[in-house]
Amino acid sequence: MKLGKVEFCHFLQLIALFLCFSGMSQAELPRSRSKPYFQSGRSRTKRSWVWNQFFVLEEYMGSDPLYVGKLHSDVDKGDGSIKYILSGEGASSIFIIDENTGDIHATKRLDREEQAYYTLRAQALDRLTNKPVEPESEFVIKIQDINDNEPRFLDGPYTAGVPEMSPVGTSVVQVTATDADDPTYGNSARVVYSILQGQPYFSVEPKTGVIKTALPNMDREAKDQYLLVIQAKDMVGQNGGLSGTTSVTVTLSDVNDNPPRFPRRSYQYNVPESLPVASVVARIKAADADIGANAEMEYKIVDGDGLGVFKISVDKDTQEGIITIQKDLDFEAKTSYTLRIEAANKDADPRFLSLGPFSDTTTVKIIVEDVDEPPVFSSPLYPMEVSEATQVGNIIGTVAAHDPDASNSPVRYSIDRNTDLERYFNIDANSGVITTAKSLDRETNAVHNITVLAMESQNPSQVGRGYVAITILDINDNAPEFAMDYETTVCENAQPGQVIQKISAVDKDEPSNGHQFYFSLTTDATNNHNFSLKDNKDNTASILTRRNGFRRQEQSVYYLPIFIVDSGSPSLSSTNTLTIRVCDCDADGVAQTCNAEAYVLPAGLSTGALIAILACVLTLLVLILLIVTMRRRKKEPLIFDEERDIRENIVRYDDEGGGEEDTEAFDMAALRNLNVIRDTKTRRDVTPEIQFLSRPTFKSIPDNVIFREFIWERLKEADVDPCAPPYDSLQTYAFEGNGSVAESLSSLDSISSNSDQNYDYLSDWGPRFKRLADMYGTGQESLYS
């Protein structure tokens, strides 16, 4: 087996250590000058052990057991009467002892990193009696370390960050490697650090493992990430030491070291003059190589003739400058604007101000494009007033609009009828004069809000809108009236001068100084002996009694006419009638009953009895109605007159029929001959069955008699019809008679015509066309035979 250079060095070290310690372990300590001691009965002898602390190298790879050391007692004379035994950690399993000589050997490979020492107990026994000749004693076997563990980075791989443009020597991160070897013995656990990859940008301190920057002005925009490889080597970095590596990823964080710059020195944009306020005109952006907060921008307009017309704001997501309109554009007033816009970093870093100003400017030119604009009114709102008494056709006011374009096209006016549905107003199409078209009523609508349309004569699609608010001025055109429908009562035991009702009035008009009403009794009611009226001078009046002893039997209701006058100019008046009922009242003056009929009812008839009587009457009425209805149904005739024109009746059969093969569906002769009288009657309550075996008898009538008889028969049928309405009605019949010069255009009548058409081939088409073959073929005469 060939050994490498490193393994050969390790082998030489092991041999040197083995030779050193084997001599120590085999050397016996100076023996005690005392006599050996035995323990027998009560006598005792001083102990005479000779032992030492043993050392053994770890990772022994030999084929024979490794000699550890030797135990010897002064009692042992070498005659084989003493035997040695070993107990404790690893006894018999790892360590064995020669019971005759006391030699100790290790039978297994030892690893100091697993267990650094073993504590064992040794005892010398008499071979014959198996009794101890010496007290049991402890000793320690220490495992001697060799450099068999390389340094390890337990926290690797590492990630770290450092700001760009950092000065040389800026600390980045500290790496730490651990070595499992014994740090108290030799240099096996003494580690030094070095950098294998990442130079010349970074360096590492050999003893501490601190990584630092090695170059100044490292630019994130050029390269933002570096991968370092760090090595840790034991034996103080000497040849033959073991080593381990880890990776460190270093990311350069951004600093604000790049000023913003516009890609172009000037921009130009075209916008139509019709663009509404707050619309976006353009987006511009200054480039900044930085990222995040270091690339945040601020834009402002620093110069130009559009400072009040445009404004610029920043888009937080894209860092773009957004130019928007603040005022309406007018091509006729100004055709272009020039803006000087500045972009600057929001937060500049003072360390890099020496690199230049952290702002930039550009020029933006905005060209206003002409568009065909609708007419513009001279005022956004026209307030007008008109009296509700004004005559139809009177002028209320005038609106004016003009075409703002250079062409100055003539303008025509109209009213948006969606805002004037009742068409109260008109407008002159040329002058814009608004006049009344109907009588106005303030009480119906006090304010009319109408929209006036102004359109260009040359381009009617261009329409402007103006708004007119017409207020209707009030006049005194409504008479006062009662404020409500009063339910006035007077007790039979009322005293003279007692107030029985307080009344007030309302007026739909709204005078500027408020309402003032005057109350009085009419001339006819002034001298009545029952009631009087007192005007309270506060738009109310009180109704008082003039006498006592009102009796319902004599008069249960009184009607008192009251005259009300308002304070308008001219004043208006109205007469309102107050209905006063005489009632029976309790001791507190509360009305109990006001019906005069209550006196004629039997004294013992209660409310429950009245309800029972009414229920019986309603039940009888329902029974009578049911009987009458059933009798009318029984009188209804069950047959219908076949003489009626077949075209007047629609008979519904819930049968789909048999198609061309169905010969029992209807009688074709009934449709061919409308000038015949049928004698047969058909029951309405029986399903109609048309028989084709017996041919009905027809009676020819002269054409001039057909219509007269037809009308006469229909008249008699209507007179005797129980279902006919009990009032005069118009009967319409679609009957034309016969003998038309043009003759019939229907094929249904072709059976009796002298047509030369031959339909015999229908018989060859199968049973589905049998009916047509019988009707139109040569054998049609035998159909009714």
UniProtKB/TrEMBL annotation:
Residues 73-153, 154-262, 263-377, 378-482, 482-599 form the Cadherin domain. The chain crosses the membrane at residues 599-628. Its main location: membrane. It comes from the Eukaryota. InterPro entries: Cadherin (IPR039808), Cadherin-like_dom (IPR002126), Cadherin-like_sf (IPR015919), Cadherin_CS (IPR020894), Cadherin_Y-type_LIR (IPR000233), Catenin-bd_sf (IPR027397). One of its GO terms (cellular component) is adherens junction. GO terms for molecular function: beta-catenin binding; cadherin binding; calcium ion binding. It is found in: Cell membrane. It is a single-pass type I membrane protein. PROSITE patterns: CADHERIN_1, CADHERIN_2. Pfam families: CADH_Y-type_LIR, Cadherin. Cadherins are calcium-dependent cell adhesion proteins. PANTHER family: CADHERIN-23, CADHERIN-7. This is Cadherin-7 isoform X1. It comes from Camelus ferus. The lineage of its organism: Eukaryota, Metazoa, Chordata, Craniata, Vertebrata. The gene is CDH7.
